[in-house]
From TrEMBL:
Chief location: cytoplasm
Subcellular location: Cytoplasm, Cytoskeleton, Spindle; Nucleus
Family annotation (SMART domains): TPR
Origin organism lineage: Eukaryota, Metazoa, Chordata, Craniata, Vertebrata
Protein name per Swiss-Prot or TrEMBL: Anaphase-promoting complex subunit 5
Involved pathway(s): Protein modification; protein ubiquitination
Gene Ontology BP terms: anaphase-promoting complex-dependent catabolic process; cell division; positive regulation of mitotic metaphase/anaphase transition; protein K11-linked ubiquitination
Gene responsible for this protein: Anapc5
Amino acid sequence: MASVHESLYFNPMMTNGVVHANVFGIKDWVTPYKIAVLVLLNEMGRTGEGAVSLMERRRLNQLLLPLLQGPDITLSKLYKLIEDSCPQLANSVQIRIKLMAEGELKDMEQFFDDLTDSFSGTEPEVHKTSVVGLFLRHMILAYSKLSFSQVFKLYTALQQYFQSGEKKAGDAEMEPAAREDGERNMEKEELDVSVREEEVSCSGPLSQKQAEFFLSQQASLLKNDETKALTPASLQKELNNLLKFNPDFAEAHYLSYLNNLRVQDVFSSTHSLLHYFDRLILTGAESKSNGEEGYGRSLRYAALNLAALHCRFGHYQQAELALQEAIRIAQESNDHVCLQHCLSWLYVLGQKRSDSYVLLEHSVKKAVHFGLPYLASLGIQSLVQQRAFAGKTANKLMDALKDSDLLHWKHSLSELIDISIAQKTAIWRLYGRSTMALQQAQMLLSMNSLESVNSGVQQNNTESFAVALCHLAELHAEQGCFAAASEVLKHLKERFPPNSQHAQLWMLCDQKIQFDRAMNDGKFHLADSLVTGITALNSIEGVYRKAVVLQAQNQMSEAHKLLQKLLSYCEKLKNTEMVISVLLSVAELYWRSASPTIAMPVLLQALALSKEYRLQYLASETVLNLAFAQGLNSGPCAFEADGGTTEPNSQPRLLVSHTRETIQYLNISSWESRNRP
């Protein structure tokens, strides 16, 4: 069952997916790309309503916002985007830019003088306070501040920008002829080089708005849909380019920290996190007080994020020290919100202790008192998860999750709605109710459409989605539908590539399904080769699977030693589900060693644990093993001849009797689950 506290990482640069960046020293300036966008806006204003259809104008309006906020792109790519929306307008823009670039400097001067006419008249083409109006005013103001030498350099850059676009278009036209001559590969390589050169020539320092938009977009994608974000290497390259022009850009350091977390780089992520808070303090926080937005706030949240980072990488001692520092600073500043985050992380660090539920209940009460629904909901779900492992009844747990869902819908916490449904799926799987688990998994999948959508619309590539799909694959594999499980895993691999944050979930699921299939087919050598991969992802699961393989290969003494060590370790961790599985394997080892009598108390212990913790699937499996063991325990099968007929002794009758008891037990359990209030 995945931990619900993965969402506790505090992100001080993002609120509702919007990055609050303050790019110091970076202002809007005129570039050749922005001149091309200004030409597009001017042509849209000059074109009458009848010349452009309603659908084309709607596509153009949708195109404008990313063009205004996004980074500079090549001219050929800009032509392609405009042509896809309105081919007629693309031709006009191309002719206008060509006349300006091949003309004289005064043509560009005249163009900027004509832009001011857009705001004149009783019904101007553009309102001054609109998005387009603000962009036009910023560009006109930035151009008017340029000196003559700067204007000349801008015009020269515009000519180079136009020539590179024309060269790219010419290469694209020559490519079919090159293919006919049999030189397709060479031309393709030259074309790729020219594209990279254009991208380098087009790259430069981003303006304030471009940087804010870039950081907001990438941070939102990393949280909701990592596959649509830039690759770790590409994103780091862009961030380094951004920091080269402005090293004090604090939010870029934080995005670098998030990017390094994707590849599990503890050194670089720690380095970027410390740089973020250093820059945050140095860029004006000293002039503020030590209150809500002051110097002390940066220090305590720096310590809190450092504790979360160490906890994520398993450095619990360092995490505890950093958390103590955050608590001390937060208490001095009387910051209750920070203290509540610290209290939640205290539970995460101490959840193996027997009294951790007391700390968690206190955390939930405090979060409700201070009006923190996000933390309160996470606390409730963690409490439900803990009590599920303790064997509480399902109806009480579902009632608690229902109260948590009310908080989600009331405060529109869509991310926690997904986590809650994934939690229900895991709980029903833990209790052995495959039908209910399947229902909850399908509910989550139907809520998050598999179609390609914007990250701000639906969160269909989050951890909850991966957990639900993994449960779905395992449920199909348990029923023997390995082909269906493979299709689900194939979809998981497409949604979560191997370098993504949640890829370990489907990797472990895939290895376990392959292992079970190999064991069922009797391919023990293949199953043994899969143990290494399982151990790398989950050490406890890997040791258990290794013991199962040794047992199947008749290496009983080695398997028994391994199972005994694993049993002691799991009892210490209170991993009841694995304890029962180990006990069943030990019992199987005993009766395969012709000692079914010794297996009986082991199976009875497993049955008692299964009933105590309400693990119906394991209880049913244990009862079946008991029936089989009692059948073996009744002695060897003997046959007596009487009048030409053979009649078995009492052992098969006893086995049939116990099998009937097993079926009766399963039917009663199923009836109870259907009629439980």
